[in-house]
Amino acid sequence: MQANVVVVGSLNMDLVTRAQRLPQAGETLAGESFFTVPGGKGANQAVAAARLGAQVAMVGCVGADAYGQQLRDALLGEGIDCQAVAIAEGVSSGVALIVVDASSQNAIVIVAGGNGQLSPASVMRFDALLQSAEVIICQLEVPAETVEYTLARGHALGKTVILNPAPATGPLPAHWFGHIDYLIPNESEAAALTGLPVNDLASAKVAATHLLALGVGKVIVTLGAQGAVFADGTGFEHFAAPVVQPLDTTAAGDTFVGGFAAMLARGEGVREAIAFGQQAAAISVTRAGAQPSIPYLLEVQTVVTA
Ligand code: RIB
Fold it and tell me: Which residues form the active site (predicted)?
């Protein structure tokens, strides 16, 4: 099997608590439930792309612990090529401590663990995977130099390069932008990248214009229930979000990115890919947890054709 989507990124075990609300500083809150599920932005995007029709390979790193084994097994169970998911001795696997509140919003603390060991050399070693890909996806839960290398290499190979700048803490290095075909931030990430407030359609357009001026190919700002704004330098398009009752928004953005990439990899147009990614993400928010919430192709097609 040759992978047409390659994800270079993180794998985390998600330790998830539900509580009425998110705790404040110094406060101890009683949670209502607890569960442990595979997550990590990279792995979630890989699972989404695989469930939504792509042949996927993952490049990542876990610790030599039980979580690492479970995280790798979860991807293997989805038919994802894990030859490039290394197991590092002496570090834990990545973990994410997640609290989901009654209104389905979440707060997440991540500990990089093995994700922090993913070096440019770990990606170079599997250059054949990048060469076989149509689409290469990165996020920001692995070292910046590894993201930088992957973006540059993907661009040099003429691949479609997607950066989901999550989590974003500030502007990206200027020389990255020319290597990115699709930059896909959410509101808070677009705000962190530009220094501008982003909370609605109008402000998303301003931020997208700013990002295009920095040299990125195309921008998709995802706005949750407010949909998504697509900007390619010739204008803006708004894609309304499907209306659903959210239970847990964890991995909604990852589902969008994975679904979007799967559609591009099979030759669909960008508008079809955005609408498809939105349908998949809308299903995911009605379910709890990261990877367990991601729908399969048939579920999304059923909604699209209904
Ligand atoms: O995007 C959701 C993901 O963010 C979670 O699965 C968690 O692992 C964090 O990486």
Answer: 254
